[in-house]
Structure to design on (1295 residues):
């Protein structure tokens, strides 16, 4: 029987298993009783806020590695921040499951495009997406912008395009979104607070 | 929230109504269990369902969905007839003594000024009597027949316990037990907190339900007090922030409002909003409106905004009507909308009447989706069998789907229900090519701007002049944006009392909105956030959780708007002489020696205004006091009146049975074609209500495996009595139909949904959780909003998701 | 190696006495049902911390999901709608899982040396690498807790997060519990905490509120505060007076020596198969990641 290096490690790993044999008299040695190794010991800890409801619970996110150059960070565990005055380390079933949102197989990874009448998505580049969206928006605005109403009053509005903003987005995103949307004269603009 | 999460621990009584805090906000709800454990507080739950909140309550009372104004009106009547009110508070801190115009009236379910053609009111009679001195007339004895107190008493005298029971189905004994418990907090040193959420908001009279709750709290003297308040438990992590930043069709940041078409004159626009005090010696804080507005325009348009061009007033779009989400989908269905951008919003799931939303989206020329997850809206054109039965070849909409980062992959701030602005930090890179929302917004905007620079086009001025001073223009940094909305001095800002004294040097961050000016010398993107990022740094990132006064006021944790104040109207926690109503729970008090208000919170008041000056606590109202009488602010009238939901099992409104016009809200907007989509009780006899479950968050967590495991499959809840009548057993599949469509789901048969006697008839409720759809890791299901009606609240246009009619049958 | 791991009180199928010189603190989890909202945060935190993902199941007409304990679900909420008196409904929600008995029936029944270990601090922990999948622990448990995994034929249950407790932290379920229905500390502190809760419940009209710390299994390191302490069966059939099954004593006395030989041979053969072939699923997992 040839024992490869990989198999050798398995023998070591199986060492614990052999302890049961030891007790039955098959081999000498002491049975070890060790708990699972604590998995956060050297993980990187980052503070964040739960993105679901408005309690605003503090989070500790744990990621692989210590942020050194050669590590690709991946969050593998999230639990409550015990310092946070509101949640004091607790999390509800949604917050406690956040790692499965971050790592959901349904996360979008690439810009995609669906053509009129098509049954499928096609991948496109960010540049293509931005260029085409900008073209569509500008053409629609130029064609339908209302500078004055029937009474001749200045109204400077654009009604043929609307925007819905995300109430889970940060203030910084919300602020820049509002600025851009109003500069174009859009009125059909809401966030989830409306529903 | 007027108060905040941790403050709930200071309460004596918690009323959860129009919400389900244990289920939807479990970690905030812990402060209820803390109050129960450490203050012997009690918890009362009033809800159509025996919820998870009810599971740990001291008392539960059932109520028919949509009848909350009748219940709360009955509470007001109880408090007034049993004289269980906080007299000093009601007399001094509310408009109870204000005299109302003689033309104001209420008859047969309608207030004065109704126009049935327009389905709206001329509100000119809904106001105070103004004396020759320009101030509102008052009667401090509260005896004048036209004073608010007497009018209110008369209005709610119709809301007897018998009437409450008839309308709500709540047994009289249960209703009276709730009244007695609430009434105990009229004592000066007792408080009740009201925790509500979308169970009040999502009705055609939702805003008025909330007002009725606030009126109860004012009668009891519970607004401004620690452990008191009206506490709206917001539904999303930054729905408070996006509301504060004005991302709604009619708003600008900081609750400034967009002009209407007729407001062509800038000065008149400002004057209308800068209300003058209605009583002598009062402060009307909105008189500073001009400073907030000009500073906003400087933040957006920089040097292009000048006194000469009225700070770019004409660059703001003006409104001829509201363009809320329901209006936009109505217009879209009529082919009037070509393009739509959904940034982290899934309207196919979240908007009412899925078939209408789907048809509307199909008429778009282009749809842009920005989201971290594959949403239903992004695939509205795709056939997903019975759950989304459409023909892609017939849908000509171009769709772009752009992947964005999630919370874990970005820096930035979110605002919780307690108005805390909390900074968070990036922990990992996003998957694949996903980009941050700010970078995506910049990517689109900079290309449009470049096209306008190159080609010209319709009114390019605001686009070309929009400030965009970012180190990397294609990717604005959150720190830069936060500094911009917090605000800075463009020139030296000096002390108005001593112009030689420079408060803030040109180029420095402002300390707060008190430093804003209307001469263009300050820039601030959202005045209520001012000071969040001062020269001291990013106060939103503060993490000192010390609570030196022991009442849960952690002033050095993050930053709370406004001005780091944690409890709004906190001046009202003290009596007129400046002493706390409950010395054991002192929030602030007048310190005569120091000549200022001091304590555990930032005073919501002029810091050095002595009690003798007689200034009242509600400085955001020109009256200086809180309003029972809403003057002209509400679409349905100054006093909340019960109206039935648009789909109701009742043939008439029991409060005005003779007037068919007031069965449902006479002031709610209904689009012409939608009248026909409302179902009637003969075909759809059961009251339906939709809601969240604690295991899920909207249509989002079904993409997270752990949540899919704990609540895997779509279900509806029905009471044992209805189940028996329909031959339905737990675990059976049932079809739930409304006049707009159907869903199929597993039946959970439960004692927790009780059948009620409403207006002499046995009335059954069907509970419909909303979390399923045709994308995700949980079992696929129907979008619940297939069933819901396309009608909203008369003020906010928030859809009536909480009360409509269905039929149920076993499949 | 964690310090806690050396403080062993008892090991299954082992006669060698463990070291007894040290006496670390005795821990306990207290489940206050009167504060539990059944949110399942503890279920999620348990799966998340322990890297478990159960199947996405179906709805059987109740809120209970997963429907029962499994090798992937070490704790579940059991929901009971009870009309305690006419017109007074209560929704009693019990977090079910290992009780960490002072006198553990599972450990007594286990024939595999070291597969079940009881720490001096009170934690009863399964060491799956020693587990032979015989299922005797399941028979031995008076609370019907351990579950055999279809994936690897080993038995799993709550470890009371022995890996967290070993480094001085609280179990994942305790930390996450939004309402403080779950509390963790020394066993003495937990009994005192329960006394305070019981006094509060009695003031609120629950005359029979009581602590559940059953003597029949020597007391437990997971205890309940029950509003209706006189009727534990209201809480999804929590046993009123749990005892270790008499079958376990029978097995310990007579059958054990014979069985050990057979099991030993099976394990021995399995050992060499594992080293040369390896478990198939390891490769699959590597690919999936």
């Amino acid at each position: 029987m040839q024992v490869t290096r990989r198999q050798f490690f398995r023998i070591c790993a199986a060492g614990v298993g052999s302890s049961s044999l030891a007790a039955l008299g098959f081999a000498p040695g002491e049975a070890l009783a060790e708990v699972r190794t604590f998995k956060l010991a050297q993980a990187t800890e980052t503070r964040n806020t739960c993105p679901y409801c408005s309690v605003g619970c503090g989070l500790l996110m744990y990621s692989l590695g210590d942020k050194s150059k050669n590590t690709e960070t991946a969050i593998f565990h999230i639990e409550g921040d015990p310092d946070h005055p509101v949640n004091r380390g607790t999390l509800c079933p949604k917050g406690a499951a956040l790692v499965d949102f971050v790592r959901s197989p349904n996360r979008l990874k690439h810009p995609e495009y669906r053509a009129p009448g098509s049954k499928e998505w096609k991948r496109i580049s960010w540049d293509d997406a931005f260029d085409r969206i900008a073209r569509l928006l500008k053409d629609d605005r130029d064609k339908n912008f209302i500078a004055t109403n029937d009474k001749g009053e200045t109204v400077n509005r654009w009604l043929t395009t609307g925007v819905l903003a995300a109430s889970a987005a940060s203030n910084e995103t919300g602020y820049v979104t509002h600025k851009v949307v109003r500069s174009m004269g859009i009125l059909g603009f809401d966030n989830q607070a409306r529903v | 929230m007027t108060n905040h999460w941790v403050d709930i621990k200071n309460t004596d009584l918690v009323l959860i109504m129009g919400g389900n805090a244990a289920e939807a906000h479990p970690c905030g709800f812990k402060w209820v269990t803390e109050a129960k454990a450490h203050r012997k507080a009690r918890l009362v739950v009033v809800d159509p369902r025996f919820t998870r909140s009810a599971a740990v309550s001291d008392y539960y009372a059932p109520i028919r969905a949509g009848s909350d104004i009748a219940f709360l009106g009955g509470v007001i009547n109880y408090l007034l007839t049993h004289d269980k009110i906080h007299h000093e508070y009601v007399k001094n801190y509310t408009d109870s003594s204000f005299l109302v115009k003689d033309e104001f009236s209420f008859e047969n379910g309608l207030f004065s000024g109704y126009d049935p053609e327009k389905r709206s009111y001329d509100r000119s009679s809904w106001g105070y009597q103004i004396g020759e001195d320009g101030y509102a007339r008052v009667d401090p004895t509260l005896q004048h027949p036209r004073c608010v107190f007497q009018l209110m008493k008369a209005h709610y005298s119709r809301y007897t316990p018998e009437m409450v029971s008839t309308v709500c189905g709540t047994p009289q004994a249960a209703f009276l037990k709730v009244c007695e418990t609430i009434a105990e907090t009229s004592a000066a040193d007792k408080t009740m907190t009201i925790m509500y959420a979308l169970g009040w908001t999502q009705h055609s009279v939702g805003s008025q339900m909330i007002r009725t709750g606030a009126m109860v709290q004012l009668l009891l003297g519970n607004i401004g007090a620690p452990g008191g308040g009206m506490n709206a438990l917001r539904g999303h992590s930054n729905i408070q922030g996006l509301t504060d930043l004005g991302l709604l069709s009619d708003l600008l940041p900081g609750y400034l409002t967009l002009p209407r078409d007729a407001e062509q004159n800038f000065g008149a626009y400002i004057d209308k909003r800068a209300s003058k005090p209605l009583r002598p010696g009062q402060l009307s804080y909105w008189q500073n409106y001009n400073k907030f507005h000009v500073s906003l325009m400087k933040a957006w348009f920089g040097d292009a905004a000048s006194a000469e061009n009225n700070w770019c007033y004409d660059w703001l779009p003006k409104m001829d009507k509201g363009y809320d989400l329901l209006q936009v989908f109505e217009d879209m269905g009529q082919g009037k909308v070509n393009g739509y951008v959904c940034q982290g919003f899934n309207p196919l799931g979240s908007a009412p009447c899925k078939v209408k939303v789907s048809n509307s989206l199909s008429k778009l020329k282009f749809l842009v989706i920005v989201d971290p997850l594959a949403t239903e809206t992004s695939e509205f054109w795709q056939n997903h069998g019975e759950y989304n039965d459409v023909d892609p070849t017939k849908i000509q909409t171009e769709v772009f789907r752009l992947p964005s980062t999630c919370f874990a992959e970005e820096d930035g701030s979110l605002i919780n229900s307690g108005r805390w602005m909390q900074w968070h930090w990036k922990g990992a890179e996003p998957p694949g090519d996903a980009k941050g929302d700010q970078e995506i917004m910049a990517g689109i905007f900079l290309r449009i701007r470049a096209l306008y620079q190159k080609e010209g086009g319709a009114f390019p001025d605001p686009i070309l002049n929009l400030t965009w001073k970012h180190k990397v223009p294609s990717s604005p940094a959150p720190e830069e944006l936060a500094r911009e909305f917090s605000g800075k001095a463009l020139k030296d800002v000096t002390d108005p009392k001593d112009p030689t004294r420079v408060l803030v040097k040109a180029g420095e961050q402002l300390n707060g909105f008190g430093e804003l000016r209307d001469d263009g010398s300050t820039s601030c993107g959202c005045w209520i956030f001012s000071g969040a990022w001062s020269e001291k740094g990013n106060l939103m990132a503060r993490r000192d959780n010390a609570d030196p006064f022991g009442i849960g006021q952690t002033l050095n944790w993050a930053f709370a708007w406004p001005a780091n104040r944690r409890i709004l109207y906190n001046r009202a926690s003290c009596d007129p002489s400046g002493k706390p109503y409950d010395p054991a729970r002192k929030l602030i008090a007048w310190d005569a020696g120091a000549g200022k208000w001091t304590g555990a919170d930032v005073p919501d008041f002029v810091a050095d205004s002595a009690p003798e000056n007689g200034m009242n606590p509600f400085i955001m109202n020109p009256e200086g006091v809180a309003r029972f009488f809403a003057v002209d602010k509400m679409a349905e009238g100054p006093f909340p009146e019960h109206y039935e939901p648009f789909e109701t099992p009742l043939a008439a409104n029991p409060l005005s049975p003779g007037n068919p016009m007031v069965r449902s809200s006479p002031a709610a907007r209904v689009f012409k074609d939608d009248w026909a989509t409302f179902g009637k009780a003969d075909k759809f006899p059961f009251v339906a209500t939709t809601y969240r479950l604690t295991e899920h968050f909207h249509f989002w967590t079904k993409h997270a495996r752990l949540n899919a495991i704990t609540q895997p499959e779509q279900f509806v809840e029905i009471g044992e009595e209805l189940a028996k009548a329909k031959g339905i057993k737990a675990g059976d599949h049932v079809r739930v139909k409304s006049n707009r469509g159907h869903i199929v789901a597993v039946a959970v048969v439960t004692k927790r949904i009780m059948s009620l006697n409403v207006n002499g008839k046995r009335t059954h409720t069907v509970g419909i959780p909303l979390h399923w759809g045709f994308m995700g890791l949980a079992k696929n299901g129907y979008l619940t909003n297939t069933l819901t009606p396309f009608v909203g609240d008369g003020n906010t246009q928030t859809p009536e998701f909480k009360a409509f009619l269905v039929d149920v049958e076993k499949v | 190696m964690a310090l806690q791991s050396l403080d062993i009180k008892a090991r299954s199928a082992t006669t060698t006495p463990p070291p007894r010189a040290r006496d670390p603190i005795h821990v306990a989890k207290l489940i206050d049902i009167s504060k539990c909202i059944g949110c399942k945060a503890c279920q999620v935190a348990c799966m998340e911390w322990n890297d478990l993902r159960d199947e996405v199941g179906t709805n059987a007409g109740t809120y209970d999901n997963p429907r029962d304990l499994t090798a992937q679900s070490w704790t579940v909420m059991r929901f009971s709608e009870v009309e305690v008196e006419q017109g007074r409904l209560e929704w009693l929600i019990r977090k079910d899982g290992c009780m960490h008995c002072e006198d553990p029936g599972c450990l007594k029944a286990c024939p595999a040396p070291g597969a079940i270990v009881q720490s001096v601090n009170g934690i009863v922990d399964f060491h799956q690498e020693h587990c032979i999948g015989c299922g005797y622990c399941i028979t031995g448990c008076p609370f019907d807790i351990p579950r055999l995994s279809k994936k690897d034929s080993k038995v799993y249950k709550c470890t009371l997060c022995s890996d967290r407790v070993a480094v001085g932290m609280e179990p994942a379920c305790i930390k996450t519990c939004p309402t403080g229905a779950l509390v963790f500390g020394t066993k003495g502190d937990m009994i005192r905490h329960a006394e305070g809760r019981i006094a509060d419940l009695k003031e609120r009209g629950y005359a029979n509120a009581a602590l559940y710390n059953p003597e029949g299994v020597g007391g437990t390191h997971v205890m309940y505060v029950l509003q209706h302490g006189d009727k534990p069966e209201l809480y999804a059939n929590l046993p009123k007076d749990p005892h270790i099954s008499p079958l376990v004593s029978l097995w310990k006395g007579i059958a054990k020596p014979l069985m050990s030989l057979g099991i030993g041979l099976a394990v021995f053969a399995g050992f060499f198969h594992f080293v040369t072939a390896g478990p198939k699923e390891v490769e699959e997992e590597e690919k999936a990641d």
